[in-house]
Amino acid sequence: MAASDTDALPSLQNQERSILLSLKSISKTYVTGDVSVPVLHNVDLDILAGEFLVIVGPSGSGKSTLLNIVGGIDVSTTGDVFFQQQNLSEFSEQQLTRYRRENIGFVFQFYNLVPTLTARENVIVAADISADPMSPDDALELVGLADRANHFPAQLSGGEQQRVAIARALVKKPELLLCDEPTGALDLSTGRKILEVLGNLNRELGKTVVIITHNSAIGKMAQRVIRIGSGTIAETSINPQPIPANQVTW
Ligand SMILES: Nc1ncnc2c1ncn2[C@@H]1O[C@H](COP(=O)(O)OP(=O)(O)OP(=O)(O)O)[C@@H](O)[C@H]1O
């Protein structure tokens, strides 16, 4: 991996990528009763359209908080989030819901599939609340699970369940796929397959993919890696030659 490179962003922008989303001086403090927990401090970050970005950092450093703010699940205490020139910080709840539905696909560590629905039905649930979804069968095809569409989650391995979860995220045709420890519950070989699927969606469909993880090995397949420490961006680096997912090892 390249050493820290403050020119990382311009060099990626030279590939004529526009800024999809901008965090401007984002701070977040959780307040519960008398207790304040400051988590993010003046974070500035541009996410470029079509990039594969990995955000790494130790447990408790604020990665999920950051991802949730990007995805409109949570709001910052101060600062602004611009998505295609719109300021999310000024959105009503209803506007945030529409933003999430139309633009963001979420993938979590523990799949969160409905156990009583088949793979296809799990994907259909997401398609049904989307304005312009792709066909659920096409989404399953894209993750290599067309032949398991009628299987229930309990009949699928962890990696297959995660692929259903990716199909569910994808069916809405989101601009941005936000993945929170997508391989965290999987062994190396299954985890690589998930990373391969995410890499293909980035390369072949042009999806912008952001992965947050404590596993810095995953950064080797990213175009850009951001290291979070104590609620700030401690380091940004670019990979001139990201490695293929099947060579990532941990
Ligand atoms: N709703 C909340 N209320 C209060 N504190 C919170 C809340 N959510 C997160 N925190 C605290 O914010 C800090 C950052 O949490 P966050 O989940 O963003 O970190 P993380 O880097 O994603 O950690 P992990 O890798 O363990 O998931 C932690 O100290 C956590 O306890």
UniProtKB/TrEMBL annotation:
UniProtKB keywords: ATP-binding, Nucleotide-binding, Transport
Domain ABC transporter: 21-250
Gene3D superfamilies per record: P-loop containing nucleotide triphosphate hydrolases
One Gene Ontology molecular-function label: ATP hydrolysis activity
Gene Ontology CC, one term: membrane protein complex
Pfam families: ABC_tran (PF00005)
Keyword ATP-binding assigned: yes
CDD domains attached to this UniProt entry: ABC_MJ0796_LolCDE_FtsE
Keyword Ligase: no
Family, per entry: Belongs to the ABC transporter superfamily. Macrolide exporter (TC 3.A.1.122) family.
Protein name: Putative ABC transporter ATP-binding protein
